[in-house]
Each structure stands twice: as C-alpha cells, then as structure tokens.
Design goal:
single chain; mainly beta; 4-stranded antiparallel beta sheet; 3-stranded antiparallel beta sheet
Length: about 190
C-alpha cells in the first residue's frame, strides 16, 4: 500500500487465493517449478526458512538442488520496495532456469478493488519498456483533471548468462482459465 492506494492486490485472509508479489523458478529440462516462498504454491521445498525483521523479510529455500534467497526491503526514505532474488545451482551440471515475477496491480483504493476486482482490472494500463527490462503501470484517468498514479516493475539480472526477457500482462495467459497462482499455466 502507498498512502490510501493499494498498489498490488493483497488480502489478509489466508483462506482466499494467494495474492502478493511472487517469483517462480522453473527448470526447463525437468519441467518442474516452484515459488520463491511458501505461497502461492503452498510447498516448502527440501529446505525452507522465513525470517522477518523490522522493514525486511527473507525467504530461503532449496528445491531440485537450486537454492533461492529472497530479500524484501522497503525504503524508509523513498517510495520504493526492492526484492532481490539470488538463485544458486548446487547441481554439478549447468542448467537452464526461468525466473518469472508475478503480481496483480491495483493502483486504486483497496476498498474499490475488493468490491469488484474484475471491474477494477479494466482500468489498469500497462506498457512494456523492454530497453529497461521494465513494465510501466498506471490507471486510466476518470477525468481530464485526474492525475493517476504510476508505478514500474523491473527485473534486473546482476550477473551470469541471461536470456531474453519477455513480458506478459494478461492474467488469463499467465494463470490460465480455471487455474490459480498455485498452479499457473505460465509454468
């Protein structure tokens, strides 16, 4: 959340569909995939640890001889959240892994989104900025005077061999018909 705006879809109810910001890691050779944290796929992996401190959260896990370490920090000075995902292959052979970031953007008061999320989705506008490895997001203004909020999501590789980056902003193509983020079609 930022001021009175929900930036991404999130619900406090753990019995509902998982909402938030997630990373998925998939192995192209084995066609197996997992999330960076317990949610949304509800699997802990071979090893799993969650650490929460003031202004920071960490998730460590191991799946298929791949370790992931996720750090989430919110700046106290700027309107900024940074998520860092470190992926380490512990197998002897090289592998081709695909990392996918997923969230549902709202950019509106949370109550508006909770009343009718499908209707709320109609007003979110996305624009790929592949030269920056980012997606720009805003809401369509309701009037000429309205200044809608903007946000961006970027996925940057720190080092190593990185293949092409692609973007998909259609929930139906990512999740699939009759599916949820617990078993998305994109994987």
């Amino acid at each position: 959340r930022w001021n009175d705006q929900a930036l991404t879809r999130w619900r406090e109810d753990p019995t509902s569909e998982s909402f938030g910001v997630f990373f998925f890691v998939g192995d192209r050779a084995t066609r197996r995939s997992w999330s960076n944290s317990f949610t949304p796929m509800l699997r802990a992996g071979r090893h799993y640890e969650a650490i929460f401190t003031a202004g920071r959260a960490e998730f460590r896990r191991q799946d298929e001889q791949v370790e992931t370490h996720t750090e989430i920090a919110v700046s106290t000075e700027d309107d900024l959240e940074i998520r860092r995902l470190q992926v380490t292959n512990r197998a002897e052979a090289a592998r081709s892994l695909v990392v996918t970031a997923y969230t549902e953007v709202v950019l509106a008061p949370a109550a508006t989104d909770e009343l009718h999320r499908v209707f709320s989705n109609l007003f979110v506008h996305t624009e790929a900025a592949p030269e920056h490895g980012a997606i720009l997001l805003t809401r369509r203004p309701r009037s000429a005077e309205e200044q809608p909020p903007w946000m961006f999501c970027a996925l940057k590789a720190a080092r190593g061999a990185v293949g092409p980056c692609s973007f998909e902003t259609d929930r139906a193509r990512c999740i699939g018909r009759g599916r949820s983020v617990r078993a998305p079609a994109l994987l």
